[in-house]
Specification:
globular, 9 strands, alpha/beta, 6 helices, four-stranded antiparallel beta sheet
Length: 225
């Protein structure tokens, strides 16, 4: 079985890609690319990502990327390959504004890239969240797409139906693939523990709102497989 790493943001797409790859690859660790000047992401809390890795029982590694980004990503991917990894797994669903897929471009000639969610129907994809016992929270959303912020909302049937309707109306990509919103996974079928958010605040910015997660705890995940 080929050895792989999952490029991990902590959001729903990287988690769904992880689940789709179980049994097909030997997943060795999670890797998060972080910018040189700012280790804290507004949409993707590194504190939560570390809790996710602990819940899965897998090693997590941050790799710093900096300008020029193409060279930096190529260097990081080369280091991953040199560590004995055969495949990068990503949660990418489609191209953005018709640009080539960034990871595939940077990994070309270095290593294989596996994108199990590629070109999947968005409605079908997000409808898998509830029957698979995921708990997902919206960590950031842009105001231009909706007057009612979904930041801090859990992905339940009401929110999923709303996103699907907004896509049908031509307002957004229901999966948020164009950056309309971002997510953090609090529980998944392969999480031994569910992450509880004990303390958080919704922060207002001019163009978006984001969830500042300040304290978490772990409880046994009753849906762990």
């Amino acid at each position: 079985m080929k050895k792989a790493v999952v490029l991990w943001t902590g959001g729903k797409d990287s988690a769904l890609a992880f689940q789709a790859s179980i049994g097909k690859y030997s997943i060795e660790r999670l890797i998060t690319f972080v910018p040189e000047a700012e280790a804290k992401f507004m949409a993707h809390s590194l504190q939560v990502i570390e809790a996710q890795a602990k819940s899965i029982g897998i090693k997590h590694e941050c790799m710093v990327v900096k300008q020029p980004y193409d060279i930096s990503y190529i260097n990081c991917i080369t280091k991953i390959k040199q560590s004995g990894i055969d495949t990068l797994i990503t949660g990418d669903i489609s191209t953005i504004d018709d640009y080539p897929n960034w990871i595939r471009e940077c990994a070309q000639g270095i290593m294989e890239v596996h994108t199990p969610l590629w070109k999947l129907d968005r409605k079908t994809l997000i409808k898998t969240i509830i029957p698979n016992n995921y708990k997902i929270i919206c960590s950031l959303s842009y105001k231009k797409y909706s007057s009612n912020s979904i930041t801090g909302c859990v992905f339940d049937t009401t929110l999923i139906d709303k996103l699907i309707q907004m896509e049908s109306d031509g307002e957004i990509d229901a999966a948020g693939e164009n950056g309309e919103y971002h997510t953090m996974v609090l529980s998944a079928p392969f999480f031994k523990y569910e992450i509880q958010v004990d303390k958080s605040n919704i922060i207002e910015r001019k163009e978006f709102t984001y969830l500042s997660i300040e304290q978490t705890s772990l409880v046994k995940n009753k849906y762990y497989q």
